[in-house]
From TrEMBL:
Residue ranges of domain D-isomer specific 2-hydroxyacid dehydrogenase NAD-binding in the record: 105-270
Identification of the protein by name: 3-phosphoglycerate dehydrogenase
Organism placement in taxonomy: Bacteria, Candidatus Gottesmaniibacteriota
Family membership noted in the UniProt record: Belongs to the D-isomer specific 2-hydroxyacid dehydrogenase family.
UniProtKB keywords: NAD, Oxidoreductase
MF annotations from Gene Ontology: (S)-2-hydroxyglutarate dehydrogenase activity; NAD binding; phosphoglycerate dehydrogenase activity
């Protein structure tokens, strides 16, 4: 079995493939042009979020049987092209759910307690004890949009703090979403990016949120309309936001988000823990080997 790995994966996953006698080409920094040159020999392609598996890549992959995403989101893979070519697509569902959920709670605390500002001011020699009045999660209403692996874990974690929870799932009616946005003190997004969710949070829906509320996005940048959120924060129409994902990544400096004092920015680290990385990579390589051996797997997207 010939496997091309295009992004950095956990050493245990490489060791697993070695034990399975896989013919593995590990190129974790491969660039698009080189990928087009190398993919022709591969039966399997393993990627994380960096590598874009375009239609051109799929067409060049004349021996390609499966594309594996070591992670949950598959929006960096042209799934229509895969479907048309009969190439399977799999992911690692739920592998990073705990990591994403924990960061969500960390961002909630950071917003409510102004932790980034407190840290920054201390490093600048200031003592802002009187100015840094925070708030508690206890008895706040946390609105969770998306109730999959991550949404369920966020629900469990914030309830430990005594928060009230509202949930909107992918099949819920518009009225339920409107009620959540109007009622919640914290709105946190945990949906997959697709045609239904792209631009889900726009100017009209942001306008429903309370002026004292916060928005957290660590699913995909395009779920929120960029200009609408920027204008909302600039004009202080909500209290603040925390963003771990962006419309174009990496987010380069300088950029307009850096000038907002009510927005916490992190560089797409929500699923980036040692534990989540290992789990996602092990799930991906295990299922790739099973698939190439003709065995049944449960992680197929296509």
């Amino acid at each position: 079995m010939k496997i091309l790995i295009c992004d950095k994966i956990h050493p245990d996953a490489l060791e697993f493939l070695n034990k399975k006698k896989a013919d593995t080409l590990y190129l974790p920094e491969i660039m698009p042009l080189e990928l087009l040159q190398k993919v022709g020999d591969a039966q399997a392609l393993i990627v994380r979020s960096r590598t874009k598996v375009t239609r051109e890549v799929i067409e060049k992959g004349i021996n390609l049987k499966i594309v594996a995403r070591a992670g949950s989101g598959t929006d960096n893979i042209d799934k229509l092209a895969c479907q048309q070519r009969g190439t399977a697509v799999i992911n690692s569902p739920g592998a990073n759910a705990q990591a994403v959920a924990e960061l969500t709670v960390g961002l909630i605390l950071s917003l409510l307690r102004q932790i980034p500002k407190a840290d920054r001011s201390m490093h600048e020699g200031e003592w802002l004890k009187k100015e840094l009045m925070g708030a508690e999660i206890y008895n706040k209403t946390v609105g969770i949009i998306g109730y999959g692996y991550v949404g369920k874990k966020v629900t469990a974690l914030v309830r430990v703090f005594g928060a009230n929870v509202l949930v909107v799932g992918s099949h819920d009616e518009e009225e339920k979403l409107i009620s959540l946005l109007k009622t919640s003190d914290i709105v946190t997004l945990h949906v997959r990016l697709n045609d239904k969710t792209r631009g889900l949070i726009n100017k009209d829906r942001l306008a429903l949120m309370k002026s004292t509320s916060y928005l957290i996005n660590n699913c995909r940048g395009e779920v929120v309309v960029e200009n609408d959120l920027y204008e909302t924060l600039l004009n202080k129409k909500i209290a603040g936001a925390a963003l771990d994902v962006f419309w174009k990544e990496p987010l380069t400096a300088p950029n307009r988000w850096m000038g907002l004092d009510n927005c916490i920015l992190t560089p797409h680290i929500s699923g980036q823990t040692q534990e989540a990385t290992r789990k996602a990579c092990m799930m991906a390589v295990t299922d790739v080997v099973k698939f190439l051996q003709g065995k049944v797997i449960n992680s197929r997207v296509i």
